[in-house]
């Protein structure tokens, strides 16, 4: 579809010529997205190319460009730091302006007393954490790591991470919010709407945030979030992280009021019992199953290589065959990381005693090698900053997370055997990284206070190999088939694959959902706030009466 | 009218349709200064099916419905009809505690379950629920949570609606749908339980947080027929302390630090009139008691729960005492007439059938809002100056400050006792309410629960968010049959 050059000119007038481009070289850098090859024709690494990229510097500019897009019926897709292929435009035949929010990068304020920060969309977790720690505060860093946008996780995506167990999910940490709707209206939520400041997200009356921030957020499909306030937690550590070591295996010394453990379990039943005991006892500043992302058969070899400056990745294969390493693998096979923090020495010693009691009661244990100083300090660094996200891609340059259905520990324990066996079976193709059947990782809790989480299977594949890409796709389809066969809700693989599906296929599936109320609600809400349907289907909806009549109503 | 009566009786049974003058009178006004209006019927559904049938009937007959879960007295006008020909949907008979899941610490209850009914059932499992301060005995747990009434343990308050998680809602359209995690699964709780789902996660479903649309809604979006609630363990050992001070400002940094490091369970601030009124039901004795109390008291409960409870309490006490010393405050275990036992009663018990705020003079005009603690003293001064303008005796005013959302937000509440039979006192209470509210909102007080007049104040300040709420209302209650006239609807 041809768009008038007048639209480009109008956008240029708003942001200036340096802040808008339709140069194909730049556009393709936005289309090049991780996971694209799993859903795009010919296993292309490129999602649809944007029609233009604009870099607004303020809410006013976002609003003005949004209005231009409405006038010319151009789709809108904001991106802050991006993660996953759905950060790009969705369709080749729908001209889309990608809003790159990198110029909106200010920490506007940190209210030390009231423990919240007001940030723009390109403020990343690491940036905020560094500033917050100077004030004895900390921020919840989401699972996607410290280089991600605070606004994106709080307003538009999921918001859970290793520290959510103690610090809360960013959906609950979200306070005031500023939102430019797809129609170009500026909406402020909670206390901000009353001019009372940024401290409260609820109300007045029913909470407007209920339409902007559900479970997964609208992922760029419902306008642009231009600022938010985020609740901070206490940080009982030093004002600056005193990082040691050589790259890449940086270490963070463990303060006298901290502990960094890897806890192992003899079986998944014991693991669940240990989880529930940690939940009941309120332990854990950070609670996460992280190091297993490398795969249960390779994890020890990888991490001991990673922290040893004399070794390289080439050493992993040899090390993994070492009987001593294999023995350590077995003790760490069903394990998770637990960082304890206290306000006093008495407090941390008490937490140790409580943990000892829990381990004694459940048959779980500290994984000795992982709790030695080098690994403990590395674990502390990894978990406190979550800056090692390159490790997600370490084996072959590509990974895809299957499963990740969230639920109670008993619910998750129920699907773990199926997830492990399914991955083991698919590794027999020798086209996926053979790291063992259990590369399951995930937050100790995605909800503040604990009790709820999911495990994501890290399936590493080679994005440069068509055969490996196909094997990964097959694994995704196998995981879906396993879920259907066992009555388990579908996991992340479905979410990834859907990006390549037609609207009709997606709506056919949605129409069979156990409850379609929210899909109908979102359609009607979209009709109201996005009358030109400029937001994409990352904010999903179900066309009216879809699936009810032989001839479905024409969808917009 | 008779036709409507027959139709209602067909849904809930003849005995559960009430239209006798006394019953209608009870629901035509409350303790607030809102305009009275008599409903036509009061109906008492027994289950979700009957509620859904009622809502569908209301849509067919364009009849306003006003859901009510708690017993009288009601306080803020939200249960008094604003539209004529209304039917009160009295949910107090829906008393099922559907499930107590000890391992996941989740209870699923119907809206008629009160705090005094839920507590013993939970105690059998070693569990408890974070509660508001001294709820009346017939206060519905679900109603309290839906209205975001503050609870007393800020460290557990990861969000303002906490511990509310999922809800089953008959929306104004008549459609039944679940919120949060439950909204993804089959539309049947038993079927969800069989699949190992426990209604834990309140977010969603999808990109919408439906629970957030029914909280604070004063029954204007739909009728909640069940709710899941996160539970806590009952402490094995407890202790409570008073930290007195002549000025609120002297306690502010101390409370900030307590909530920051999440030290302590119950954490709240009371002025002397409020504390005296809570512990002493007799007005004369309460007046005498308050003279002996410090102007402000921080009340802090410490608790040892789960493993090693005594050691936990010991460490907490040590850290707590150190903090008291750091802020140059004093610590005491009680005052003449106010003991630790009184504190436990306040925290764990209920206020019986006679809410303390009504004890002094028979009625109370309450003003409450959210703010940050550093602004509380200034806003209190605003209210004090308004009270002085109307010659209201300031020592009679009860003030309660409750840290919420782990100390980021603070509920600030004023109680102005007055004699409901004295026209001058009634007029004065009304004048103070109107004038103080207007000044407070101008100075940044946030009326997050905008009952009555407050709705005018808050919704006129932001047209955009008001328009969004009206859009939501139009979707879920297109015929506007759910408590019309409230909020901005």
Task: Walk me through this protein's architecture.
By secondary structure, chain A is α+β, with helices and mostly antiparallel strands. Chain A folds into five domains: 5-100, 2-Layer Sandwich (Uridine Diphospho-n-acetylenolpyruvylglucosamine Reductase, domain 2), CATH 3.30.43; 107-234, Uridine Diphospho-n-acetylenolpyruvylglucosamine Reductase, domain 3 (2-Layer Sandwich); 257-394, Alpha-Beta Plaits; 396-440 and 448-500, Alpha-Beta Plaits (2-Layer Sandwich); 503-556, no CATH class. In chain A, 36% of the residues lie in helices and 15% in strands. Chain A contains 20 helices and 18 strands. Chain A has helices spanning 5-15, 24-31, 59-72, 125-133, 150-156, 164-167, 170-173, 209-212, 268-281, 299-306, 316-320, 323-332, 345-362, 368-371, 373-385, 409-427, 466-486, 492-498, 503-511, 517-529, and strands spanning 20-21, 52-54, 75-79, 96-100, 107-111, 116-119, 137-138, 174-180, 186-188, 224-231, 233-234, 258-264, 286-289, 335-341, 365-366, 398-403, 440-443, 456-461. In chain A, the strands form four sheets. A seven-stranded antiparallel sheet of chain A has the order 15-12-14-13-17-18-16. In chain A, a hairpin with a 4-residue loop joins strand 5 (107-111) and strand 6 (116-119). In chain A, helix 9 (268-281) packs antiparallel against helix 16. The longest helix of chain A has 21 residues, at 466-486. The model of chain A has no long low-confidence stretch (mean pLDDT 96). Chain B starts with a helix and ends in a 13-residue tail after the last helix. Chain B is α+β, with helices and mostly antiparallel strands and 489 residues long. Chain B has four domains: 2-90, Uridine Diphospho-n-acetylenolpyruvylglucosamine Reductase, domain 2 (2-Layer Sandwich), CATH 3.30.43; 97-233, 2-Layer Sandwich (Uridine Diphospho-n-acetylenolpyruvylglucosamine Reductase, domain 3); 237-348, 2-Layer Sandwich (Alpha-Beta Plaits), CATH 3.30.70; 361-442, Alpha-Beta Plaits. Chain B has 17 helices and 17 strands. In chain B, strands 12-14-13-16-17-15 form a six-stranded antiparallel sheet, sandwiched between helices. The interface between A and B is large, with 90 and 96 residues.
